[in-house]
Structure formats: structure tokens, C-alpha cells
Automatic annotation (TrEMBL):
<feature type="domain" description="HD">
    <location>
        <begin position="496"/>
        <end position="618"/>
    </location>
</feature>
<dbReference type="Pfam" id="PF01909">
    <property type="entry name" value="NTP_transf_2"/>
</dbReference>
<feature type="domain" description="ACT">
    <location>
        <begin position="847"/>
        <end position="923"/>
    </location>
</feature>
<comment type="similarity">
    <text>Belongs to the GlnD family.</text>
</comment>
<dbReference type="InterPro" id="IPR006674">
    <property type="entry name" value="HD_domain"/>
</dbReference>
<dbReference type="InterPro" id="IPR045865">
    <property type="entry name" value="ACT-like_dom_sf"/>
</dbReference>
<keyword id="KW-0378">Hydrolase</keyword>
<protein>
    <recommendedName>
        <fullName>Bifunctional uridylyltransferase/uridylyl-removing enzyme</fullName>
        <ecNumber>2.7.7.59</ecNumber>
        <ecNumber>3.1.4.-</ecNumber>
    </recommendedName>
</protein>
<keyword id="KW-0548">Nucleotidyltransferase</keyword>
<keyword id="KW-0677">Repeat</keyword>
<dbReference type="InterPro" id="IPR043519">
    <property type="entry name" value="NT_sf"/>
</dbReference>
<keyword id="KW-0460">Magnesium</keyword>
<dbReference type="GO" id="GO:0008773">
    <property type="term" value="F:[protein-PII] uridylyltransferase activity"/>
</dbReference>
<keyword id="KW-0808">Transferase</keyword>
<dbReference type="GO" id="GO:0006808">
    <property type="term" value="P:regulation of nitrogen utilization"/>
</dbReference>
<dbReference type="InterPro" id="IPR010043">
    <property type="entry name" value="UTase/UR"/>
</dbReference>
<dbReference type="Pfam" id="PF01966">
    <property type="entry name" value="HD"/>
</dbReference>
Amino acid sequence: MLDKPNRELHLVLDRMALEAEIDALALEHEGHADALRLAVVTLLKTTLRDGRETIRTWFSEDRLGTACAQRLSWLEDEIIRASYAYVTRYVYTTHNPTAGERMAVIAVGGYGRGTLAPGSDIDLLFLLPAKQTAWGESVTEAILYVLWDLGQKVGHATRTIDECLRLARGDMTIRTALLEARPILGDMGLAAELAARFDRELVQLTAAEFVAAKLAERDERLIKAGNSRYRVEPNVKEGKGGLRDLNTLYWIAKYVYRVRDAADLVEAGLFTRREYRQFTLAEDFLWATRCALHFLTRRPEERLTFDTQREIATFLGYADRGGLRGVERFMKHYFLVAKDVGDLTAIVCAALEARQEKPKAMLDRFIAPFRRSQRQALIGTKDFVIETGRLNVANDQVFARDPVNLIRLFHLADLHSLALHPDAMRLVTRSLKLVNAALRENAEANRLFLEILTSRNAPETVLRRMNEAGVLGRFIPDFGKVVAMMQFNMYHRYTVDEHLLRSVGELADIDRGEGGDEHPLVNEIMPSIQNRTALYVATFLHDIAKGRPEDHSLAGARIAKKLGPRLGLTPAQTDTVSWLIEQHLVMSMTAQSRDISDRKTIETFAGTVQTLERLKLLLILTVADIRAVGPGVWNGWKGQLLRSLFWETELVLAGGHSNVDRRASVQLSQDELRAGLSDWSKAEVDAYVARLYPPYWLKVDLPRRLRHARFVRAVRERGETLGTEVATDAFRGVTELTILAPDHPRLLSIITGACAASGANIVDAQINTTTDGLALDTIFVSREFPQDEDELRRAGRIAQAMEQALTGTIRLPDAVAKRSAIKPRQKAFQVAPEVVVDNEWSNRHTVVEVWGLDRPGLLYDLTTAISRLNLNIASAHIATFGEKAVDVFYVTDLTGAKITSLQRQDSIRSNLLAVFRGEGKSG
């Protein structure tokens, strides 16, 4: 009997009519086997193409994911039936088949479930009797050749029942495939015998083994996929909360509870009817997403990349609404579904624990003190018990009797390091209406929540459980607005709520003294801060106003002022939280895009923070924030910039950085160099020191000053004025390229062009000139190789490209053009370019700040445009936030003066904006 969606498709593709067409072709080409085969393949190929196109049309109209997958599976069934009919009637005909000339063609794996994505492989088992003839192998081979000629990707096996069972005992993949075996055609008795023996000889005897293997397989898969269901480019099939998780859940339930259909899990007592509906809705949405992804990309793509998300959102009917773009609404739906899959998985795992089919759970990495399987009262409360090592409710009236228990449950879980029982989580979900205004204003509830947030145990884990249960978003309504909210950009790797929870986790790690090798300064100052509670609250709330039309830092500060008193914070703590949220981006932006050797930069930043305590708090929050953005975003280079800004600002707040201090600092820096060059003559040192201007001595550290001195001396001794040197810095994750060359306005442009042509990503540039007309520039590029020898070889190639560009032996515009194509992922984004020309940010320079869509060669085009404007670049600071480039240049005119002419400032803006329109490309 056909499923409903396939009854509709049957009207388009009539099996009997298709087989009749094959019979007609056989008459037409009688005696010409090759011609018949070609005609049959052409017919089936046309049928497959037209059927898939019909299915795609219906899918675009009804957007039913599961129905689409079932229709594709049914279409494949009919193609296989027609292929079998052709082969057995006209290729290997048996008018009176023997017992050995039998076969069952069985769909296994995903195809066995009766669902296929447009790009899915076809997994088939050709089941043969124990005693067989050559007929079976021949028919199998002929069918496969037909399917391959159709362009099908077919995974296949030809086995007897005994072979299937023997291989399944030792191979969990084969066992899983057989679990979902679905006969398509042939000898149904043979297929039924396999099913019965598989159940009797394997399934009934190995449930615990199967569950353990599938959960271990899931853990390994999720580690590879990123182990978070909130990654902004999720894998629909393999990622956490994706289809494979639903499959695993169903495999386990089917194996343990011996059901044939997901609906049977309700009768088995595993799911409530509401949870089963949750299962079917999640499955339908994920299938809709996967089918749309395959149809739009025309390949078996499983990752929802930025360049596909917008198209799929449109295809599935998500429009802009409520301040969110259609793509953001679609992705929010995706993450909410992924959360539902996680909830269902927890329910199944807990049920299996009760049946002793899997190990007991623990909260995060902390050892649960309660391991007994029987119910045990929790000391100090009659409302909660320990059951199978998990925290559970004593009865189903616990929350109705005292709604504060909805917060107390999670407080106790953190206090005792207990995992939460799914029965308790189910009751929480059914009781969410109790999280109302009265509970939000309850002093005890807020006290317990603040203790959870500032816990020294596992605040991130417990807050995540609260979020997944729906409590956190209701208790803190502004947090609820960012739950599952995706930021459609390449910088943030997680949803807003997940980023905030991870920020709290990063802060807790710092609080415990972990990770000091990556951020030593914050670990050092953390014990000395006086506002630990304010810091945790600010970290939890710093992005809570994302998605609003106004600046989220200002809006978040206002939210904190209202929420602070409710949580029990003092007025001083509330002010600190509000200030931290308002300024939470300032330290990062200053460190990465300002010249921190410029006195005005430090004075301005010091004026913002005002006190040493605020400086410490802001540094710690900034580190936690950056580290929680996603893997690879934090690096030693950013850490060094933040530390340098901290130390320079600390000096100003302590009353330093006067002109006298600067002169003394220059003298001290020069004296350190003299001491380090003890093998040089005094005259030689004096001559070298005199070549460099005061700013150099203030911004270059001693190891680099010593390297520079020996490098310049070596170039001079060779009688040259052009030289390069490379050095690696594993801790900061950068490679330094130092260039000595005759100074001229286009020098930095040529250097950046050589880097672009070599595929090097510049993160900063220190530019220095000497009194005798040379430039001593250091370019910092992102490290690419973990081993120094590999990285040094790469740096050597970049340095060689620089020398060739400076001597004119390569044509730089052509070399850059080969690398300058915008990557497909970046094409999904639009960043309105902006150019700011400011004379207040520096005492000595005009600061030009440029924002826009990043692309290979952008920095080269910008620096070329600046050089054409007859401007000297004193320093350049390059920051990239995903698809957005933020490049800052400290410039003067050719006389060393600021750019004060409004007309010339307008010219700078228009010329740099032209670069983003493609009009300023170097040629």
C-alpha cells in the first residue's frame, strides 16, 4: 500500500505503464540487445529526471520535508523495480526458476527508512538463498550497471542470510543498516526470514552492546562536527541536533524497544504524544532543510554555509519580520529544532539508563556524589530526590506548590554537581507558565539565580540546562529575545545565547586559573578584582540587546540598569555592570585598530576607563568575549595587543606618561639597546641610535630593537639599501617580516601587494623611517604552519616576493589580481563601506578609519589609493571581523603635517570609498 505522498506521485509515474513501455521497447529492438539496453536506460533516465522535477515542484509548493524525502525514495523504488523487470525479462530470463534462482532486493540504511535526499546514495542488499546459481550474481550485476548508467551512486552488497548475520555481529555499521532493511521486490519469504533471524539472533541478545556503540559513535561524530548545536554554519546531517542525531535516537529506541515505527514509541512509553509530535516536526523541518540544500546546490551538500542560508530561507518561505531578516528567522527556527532534538535525545538516554543500557550521567566534568539507582531524598529539601544518579522532583506538584523550585532545581544541580533527570525536565517544560512576573520579582528566586551565575562549579553548564528547558529565557525575558538568534556574519560562530553562555564559561575558567598559558595577565589580575559579581553579570548580559535597531551596547546598558536591582545588586554594582556592557567593545577595538604607541590613544582610552578596577574588569570581559566567539578567533597576537594596552593605560592611570616620562622612556630604551650591543663600538651604536626617531624607541620592544640593529648592520655591510628578515612568534600566532628599503610614499602599498600576491594575511604593520631616508618596516602576518621550519620557508617566499616587487622584477597588479577574487562565502554578505577622517584621535597624525567588506587584495588597493593621494602612512592597523575589514591608517601629508583641509579630507573619503566600488583597483 502506498503512503499518501506516494499515492499522489503514483498518478505521475505508473509502474505498470513504465513496464509496458519497456515491453514495447523490447518488441521494437528484438534481437538487438545493445540497442534495447540503450533505449531502456534512456527511458529510465527520462523517467527519473521528470519524476525528480515533479517532486521538486511539489516541494517548492508544500515545503513538506518528510514527504519530499518519501517521494524521492518511492521514485527510486520504481526505478529499481523497472530495472529488475527489464533484467529478468530480457537479459537473464528464467521461465521455470529453481530454488537457487531467487532474490530479494532490499533497501538498507537511510534508503531503508523510505526517505532519500536529492543527493543521497542508494544502499541496496541483494539477498540470495544459501544454495544459489550464477543467475543471482548475473542479475545483480546487470541491475547495478543500469543504475550506474542512470548516474546513481549505489552502495551494494550481495549476500546470503548467514553472511548478513555473521558480518553484522562484527560490524556495527552493517548491523545498523540491517536494522532498517526494507524489502523492495523479489522473494518476500527470503526477506522475512532475514528479519526474523536478525531479531532473534542479534537484536534480542545485544541491546547494551548496540547502545554503547551507537552513543560512542555519536560522540566521535559530534567532536568532528564541532560538538555544538549552535554553530552558525551547522551540518544538517552530521551536526549536533541534526538528522543523524534523530536517526541515532530512533535506531537505539528501535533496537531496545523492538518497534518498527517511530509512532510505536508512544505506546512503548518512551515518548508522550507531545514529544512524538516534537519528533515528527523536527524530522520534517530537517528533511525540508536538507532537501532544499541538495536541490539548490545540485550536490549532496550537508553544511548550511552562509552562501546557501539566504537562498534556502527564501525557498522555504521565510520573509523579513519583527526586526529579523528572513535568513535569521530561518536559522533561529533551525537552532530551536536542534534544541528539540537534544531534548528528545536526553529523554531516550535517561530511559536507557533506567533499563541499565548505558552508563549513568554526570553534570559536566564534575563527579556526582550520588550513584545509587534507588530514589533517595536530598538533604535539606523534601521537594527533590536523587534517582539513578540524577536530580529529580519528588512529585509532579513540586513547581505548582512553590514556583521558586523552578530555579532551585538548577541551583541544587550546580551545588551538588548533579545531572538533571529527564522527568524533572519534562515537568519543568510543562510548568513554564509559572515563570511569571511574580517569580521574576521574587527575591529568593533572584538570589538563587545569581548564585548559579557566579558559581565556582559549572555556571555555563547549568545555565545551558536552564536555557534548553526554557526557564532562562522566561526568567530573564531580554535573554529570551536572543535565544537561538543567529547573527548573519562570518565573525560570530554561535547563536547569541550560546555565545553569552560560552562567555560565562570562559570567565569561569579564568576564575579557576585555567588557560594561563594563553592569557597570563587576566589570570594574574582576576584574584585582585573587587567586583567579581558585577563582572559575571556583565559577561552574561553584554550582548543581550543584539538584534535591536539601536546600538546593542547602549541598549544593553539600559537593560542592566533595570535588571541589576532585581537581581539584588547594589547601586554601585549595577553602575559597574551597565558601564562594562556599554564599553565592552572599546578595549578590543582600541587594541586592534589604534596605534597604542600614540600618546593620544592611551590618554583617550584611560579617560574612558578612569580607574584601575574598571581597566581590570574590562580586560577580563574582553578576553572572555573574544574567546567565546568561536575556535581560532582568539590568538596570542590579540592577547599581546590587549596586554600592551593594559600596561600603557595602567601607567597613565597611575599618573605617568608626561613629556618628561616619554623622554626618559626614550633614553631608557636607547640605553637598553646599548647594553645589548656590547660587541659594537660606541661610535657605531651612537650612529645607529641617531638614525631612529623617538616614536621608534617607544613602541618597539627590546628583542625586536636588537634584531633590527643587527639586521640593518648586515644590510649595510653588504653595501645594499634593500633587505628583508623573517622571524616567527608561536605564542602570538604571527610571523614578522622586517623590510629595510629606501622610503617613498608607495612603499607600504608595494609591501602589502606582495603579501596579497603571496596569500598572506596582514594583521598589523609597524612603520618607521630613519634620518637617512630609509624605511624600517615590520609587517605581521597570520601564522599558517604549526612548525617553525615550515613557517619560515613560507615567510621566506613572502619576503622574496617583497624584494621582487620593490625591484620591479614582478608586475604586482597582475600578481595580486590572481588572488583577489571574493570567496563564495563572502558574496553572501553586504557591508556598507564607511571612511572616517579624524584629527582628534592623534596629536601628530590624521587618522583614517576604513570599514567595508573584506576581500583578498583590499589592503593593497587601499594603501595604493592613499599613496596616490600623496599621503605618508606612519602606521597601519588591520583588523578583520569575519567578512568585515576595519583598517586604520595614521597619515600625514608629505611635509609631515595633519590633513586639515576639508576639501582634501573629502577627497580621501571619496577615493577610498571608490576602492569598495571596484574603481580604485590598482593597475
